[in-house]
Amino acid sequence: MRQAGRYLPEFRKIRAENLDFMKLCLNENLSSEITVQPLRRFEIDAAIIFSDILLVPYALGQNVKFKKDYGPMLGNLNTKQIFKTEEKEFIAKLNPVYGAIKKTKEKKELKNKDLIGFVGAPWTILIYMLNKKSPKNEDINPNLKDEKIIDELLKIIIKFLKIHIENQIKNGATIIQIFDSWAGLLDVKNYEKYIYEPTKELVDFTKSKNIPAICFPKGINDYKKYVNIVKPDVISIDYNVDPKKISEDIDIVVQGGLNPNFLLGSKQELEINVKKYLDIFKNKHYIFNLGHGVLPNTNPNMVDYLVKLVKNYS
Ligand code: 1CP
Question: With a 6 A CB cut-off, is 239 part of the ligand 1 pocket?
Fold first, then answer.
């Protein structure tokens, strides 16, 4: 969860010298370097490739920019052009990401460690493409009115997300995480069509390559149902989810949950809350992680303290 984020001075230095975030994501050497930075500091067990879920709309021909203090800004949606996208041209545009994965996997820091590749889930990608900015705080359901075009767009998105997953695996990703960060914005009646079915397709595809799939459906109303239908290998939870209920309801591996805000408080409060998750999942298969990204004003020493707490837990 944003290990490489804005809290590390060594990341901030690179970022300050590279103001265009998309270009930075498409810089093989720098994105590989950023990926391993947290591994040099902390005793963590895996790395996640430095990239972004919005590289897919970019590779489909939609303009994508990140504006300071605003977030992502997408260009007009030219569906005619998007529907014509060829696999070869899509892969060529994302080639630096695949190069970065390959380079990273070969680095000494990754020895005996997993490298997580990732995609946005079809619904989350669709909503960014239609909304052209963060859908935070917006009622986006009415935008689904132009159903025929949206159905076609969803199909194209799924097709290219599979291609993106396949190429990340081919170049060394050993796990795929699927981020459905905006699952919580959709009306439950639309889950089947926009969340369950499309995500299941990506999970099945990933599993068919013998690679585990981790799903993060933030804000979904029923985790048990989601797990039963989508069947990921691991379910990743955010900090609004009751871990106790999850531990009772769900039998697959659970990941994450801790509110990243606890990294901003005292060590004592952090310890109590870390222990809460570890105790609840003591007799279950659990991967410790946060419930969302590390916040920019986090002190790296607190992350180090957290990792040690988890490693020394008994
Ligand atoms: O320095 C900066 O300003 C950039 C901050 C940043 C970073 C470090 C963004 C902008 N993206 C990333 C990298 C990133 N994004 C990774 C790489 C691994 C890592 O550093 O941990 C990953 C896995 C993502 C995934 C991502 N991007 C998601 C899904 C996870 C989540 O946060 O829910 C989403 C929704 C995005 C879109 C995105 N990228 C960045 C921003 C500001 C946003 C928009 C968020 C929003 O709409 O509110």
Answer: no
Tell whether ligand 1 has an atom less than 6 A from the beta carbon of residue 225: no
Q: Tell me the average pLDDT across 181-190.
A: 94
Query: Could you confirm whether 187 is annotated as catalytic?
Result: no
Q: For atom 9 of ligand 1, which residue has the closest CA?
A: 52
Amino acid at 136: K
Is 41 part of the annotated catalytic residue set?
Answer: no
Residue 215, ligand 1, Cβ within 6 A: no
What mean pLDDT is predicted for residues 149-178? 97
Rounded to a whole number of angstroms, the CA Rg of the chain reads 19
pLDDT digits (tens, 9 = 90+) for 2-21: 666 789 999 999 999 999 99
How far is Cα 244 from Cα 4, in angstroms, rounded to an integer?
Answer: 29
Q: What is the pLDDT of residue 136?
A: 84
Q: Say yes or no to pLDDT of 87 above 80.
A: yes
**Nearest in space to 164 (alpha carbons), one of 55, 73, 61, 268:** 55
Atom 19 of ligand 1 has which residue's CA nearest to it?
Answer: 2
Q: Contact 21/55 with Cβ under 8 angstroms?
A: no
pLDDT band at 147 (very low <50, low <70, confident <90, very high): confident
CA of 44 from ligand 1 middle (Å) equals 20
Q: Kindly state the DSSP code that residue 258 receives in the 8-state scheme.
A: B
Q: Is the pLDDT of residue 1 over 80?
A: no
Query: Does domain 9-232 fall into CATH 3.20.20.210?
Result: yes
CB 61 within 8 Å of CB 68: no
The domain ranges of the chain are: 9-232
